[in-house]
Design a protein that fits this description.
This protein is of the alpha+beta class. Helix content is 22%, strand content 35%. The chain has a single domain (3-150), classed as Rossmann fold, CATH 3.40.50. The chain has helices at residues 3-8, 10-21, 31-36, 140-150, and strands spanning 26-29, 39-42, 45-48, 56-59, 65-73, 85-92, 94-97, 103-110, 118-123, 126-129, 132-133.
């Protein structure tokens, strides 16, 4: 809906890319996932996003994933313990391309996620997914995320790359 405005704010896009590259913990769900992509295409027009993730998104007319999800954490990541099962939901009209060489945090047991088998793209301290978790369903998540972030100092005034 606001892809044009997001694209125009180059300072914010570059700042987010720099901070993610510097290791700042970032947890992005759904639209946050799209914002971390290289670009988003909507009705044939391509909009530049943050380029944190080496993939592109396309908005489709029909849902690409809709309903309850269940995923298993499959790899080491800064947010969830390996083998943890997370229950959540998804509702998205977008699909990603260029994800072949990316690392995923989750194996999809139920739902669609990014490619029908995986969700949760991992990059440094970033996890970006279509999955919407409910904080009460994963009680330790919020406390753990705050602890992760408290160890990072950021300089928002630093000139973007």
């Amino acid at each position: 809906m606001y892809a044009g405005e997001l694209e125009k704010n180059a300072v914010l896009r570059h700042s987010i890319a720099r901070l993610a590259g510097d290791g700042l913990p970032v947890y992005a769900e759904c639209a946050g996932l799209l914002y971390l992509c290289r670009s988003v295409a909507i009705q044939g027009r391509r909009y530049e996003m943050t380029d944190v993730l080496d993939c592109d998104a396309t908005i489709e007319n029909r849902p690409q994933g809709h309903g309850y999800m269940e995923v298993e954490v499959t790899g080491l990541n800064p947010f969830f313990a390996e083998k943890t099962v997370l229950r959540s939901h998804e509702f998205h009209h977008s699909r990603l391309s260029g994800t072949q060489n990316l690392h995923f945090a989750f194996k999809v047991r139920r739902g669609h996620g990014i490619d029908g088998s995986h969700d949760g793209i991992m990059y440094k301290n970033v996890i970006a997914s279509y999955m919407h978790i409910h904080a009460l369903a994963v009680p330790a998540w919020a406390d753990h995320f705050v602890k992760l972030c408290s160890g990072h100092k950021i300089n928002l005034m630093k000139t973007p790359v």
